[in-house]
Amino acid sequence: MTEQRVLSQLIYELPVIQVTGSANVFITSIEFDSRKITPGALFVATSGTATDGHQYIETAVQAGAVAVVCEQLPSQLNPEVCYVKVTNSAIALGYLASAWYDFPSSKLTLVGVTGTNGKTTIATLLYELFRAMGHKTGLLSTVVNYVDTLAVEATHTTPDALSINRLMSQMVEAGCSYTFMEVSSHAVEQGRIAGLEFDGGIFTNLTRDHLDYHLTFENYLKAKKGFFDALPATAFALTNVDDKNGLVMLQNTTARKCTYSLRTMADFHTRILEHGFEGMLLDMNDKEVNVSFIGRFNAANLTAVYGAAMLLEADELEVLRVMSSLNSVSGRFETLRAPLGYTAIVDYAHTPDALVNVITTINQILQGSGRLITVVGCGGNRDKGKRPIMAREAVEGSWKAVFTSDNPRFEDPQEILNDMLAGLDPVQKSKSITIVDRREAIKTACALAQPGDVVLVAGKGHEDYQIIQGVKSHFDDREEVKKCFV
Question: What is the reported pTM?
């Protein structure tokens, strides 16, 4: 990447309403946070959920910004500054970031994965699959980002546009051919993926989540669908037709339409032949493969991985061979064996649908030969509507449910638990225990377990922290479970 670029070159393909001042000015950096402005910077004033960047235009100019991209021009214009008026600053930021880093996505085979559940697993397994087949590959995920083998900490499911393009630029420099990324509904709506050139999109499923942000399920669906609507005709759109919204995603896309399923005819179809806590034997498009994954939802995830690999023209037998050696993603149905003879499973399930999937899978494998004890909570400052639903699903599918804290954030943990308990009748409440402290809740669940039982610790999965009253402290469900084994 060059140290500086001329503004007129950066905005060349940007839909611009008005340019005030000279666009023939050298830009040394692009920022959307006024606190990061240095002399020669281009400041993009975006409207965030908490603050409006337009309030900080003057602050950015005083800090040395020589150009500003905004939706509304300030009342006082600095004659030394170029102001570029656009319809949507967030989308403009995506295109500017792409241009600044010399359009890295166009030099990669880029596949995005969207949906409520399964994004991390599918994106990560595609990354591992293609690396195992000898390709340098990049990953953008909730758990961690990878520039080939270099791990980069992940702070969001989908990073901001500047971070995305910076990481992709590093992937290009590292010689990567493929990049697989999670695409969140927030990222679509906030324009974080604007300007990226996708070669494929995968839809997993759509269930209640993030309604604290989207407000309605229709808005949530529209955000996911927006990703597919924007795919080019040269890309593929692979959707899960077992989900009632699967075909909705394909309605307006010009991309090549493809389907996958466990239930019905599809381009990529899988049947579960055998399953247990050690893994499954699958029939994928009439070819058998043993995998170390558990549950129908993972069979669906693997079918998406298989389908995407086929659409990327990988060798089928090589794909199936490598899939048989892949392991579960960190914190996704992660199985731990206790010396006392029970099994502990740590899973990221934090939506009603994901929790039902995991509980159903465990009960199908147990077939009444053991009891299920479920530890679960709900996050603070998030969708309150799913709290009583989560509680009901946990109680209905378990011998005993232990309700506890997840990430309370700035809410009172007990109030969150009260919201969960409000969804239960007296009989259901009798099957539950409420313990605010998550460490004690896990200890209690493990103490209740007998040989043959399963303890499910749901909600946080790979996370190694807990946020209480805004303070982030180290906490890892897997570590806490292992302490109970001693």
Answer: 0.82
